[in-house]
Amino acid sequence: MTSNREIHLASRPQGWPTDDTFRLVETEVPTPGPGQIVVRNQYMSVDPYMRGRMNDVKSYVPPFALDAPLDGAAIGEVVASEAADIAVGTTVLHGLGWREYALLDAAAARPVDPNIAPVSAYLSVLGMTGLTAYAGLLEVAAMKPGETVFVSAAAGAVGSLVGQIAKLKGAGRVIGSAGSPAKVERLRALGFDAAFDYHDGVRESLRAAAPDGVDVYFDNVGGDHLEAAISAMNLHGRAAICGMISQYNATEPPAAPRNLALVIGKRLTLRGFLVNDHNDVRGAFVRDVSGWLRDGTLSYDETIVDGIENAPGAFLGLLRGDNLGKMLVRV
Questions:
Q1: Distance between CA atoms of residues 223 and 157, nearest Å
Q2: How high is the pLDDT of residue 2?
Q3: What are the DSSP E strand ranges found in the chain?
Q4: Residues in contact with 214: Cβ distance below 8 Å, sequence separation at least 6, in sequence order
Q5: Which one of 64, 187, 199, 330 has the minimum C-beta count within 10 Å?
Q6: pLDDT tens per residue across span 207-227
Q7: Cβ distance 219 to 243 under 8 Å?
């Protein structure tokens, strides 16, 4: 193959991105220099945090450049190598998705064993997604056995794992919110003790599902979900703030939460986190999650869209909540 297709950022969206935000560009397959490899991507991830990178603002990760390929987690096979320690045919995890062929320094790639699990799992349950769920629940929120846990966007990639890990680590009650009756049913099948469609009213639904209050809140949504959780949380409750997808496309300041003063009297802890700050628990994460996958006590869902040309549509679908579990593009 000599042709390589990439998705470039064509414009910075105001509010919701559209198809015109992206551009499909054809280039040549790159040639590696000393210490470099070329990877034929097999799967790439689309993630909510990527919406923030489309804005030209300072953040914890640089914004995407206009008229250049986007990037993100991907996995694929090395098809050319000028690096002594990574051979052609090796499956590697790396950070240059949104393209069919990626040129990168070998040091920026992590070899993985495709015989242990399907390669897509390294972008979901065995990758950053799984570590986010594990570290956020157990390290950031410090969940204890017997506690009540509430997870927003619980049918998504991270949320669905948080709820299951909470049960496996001894939570007394696990509650999830989702965006459709079908997703609510999926949460119940995954072992959530209660689940509700947030369209039915978050505060009222959470109050009914957690009559004795909430000890731990894993936040993927922000806004009305965070407000409802603050109202429901018990004394010394902890919230791990992973994401606020309800606000990513907003053009006006959010209306909620309006009850932050409750944080004082309840002595609550609201703590934001980034997964890269918790690489020290990766060993425990891999050990626990690998064991749960082997014995069938942990399940994970993937929504897969085929074709690099359909990556923008997959990303827009993610923002709409079209996915069950992890949204991936099979390149």
A1: 20
A2: 79
A3: 3-9, 22-28, 36-45, 74-81, 91-94, 101-105, 110-111, 148-151, 173-178, 194-197, 214-219, 233-241, 269-272, 302-306, 326-330
A4: 148, 149, 150, 175, 206, 229, 232, 233, 234, 237
A5: 199
A6: 999 999 999 999 999 999 999
A7: yes
pLDDT given for residue 1 in this prediction: 62
Distance in angstroms (rounded) separating the CA atoms of residues 258 and 240:
19
The C-alpha atoms of residue 98 and residue 74 are separated, in whole angstroms, by: 8
SS3 state at 9: strand
Residue 157 tokens, joined: 């990639």
Distance CA 102, CA 31 (A): 10
Please give the model's pTM, rounded to 2 decimal places: 0.94
∠ Cα 21 25 27 (to 5°): 155
- pLDDT at position 188: 98
Residue-wise pLDDT for 15-50, tens only, equals 999 999 999 999 999 999 999 999 999 999 999 999
H helix intervals, 233-310 = 262-265, 282-295
* 8 Å CB contact between 294 and 262: no
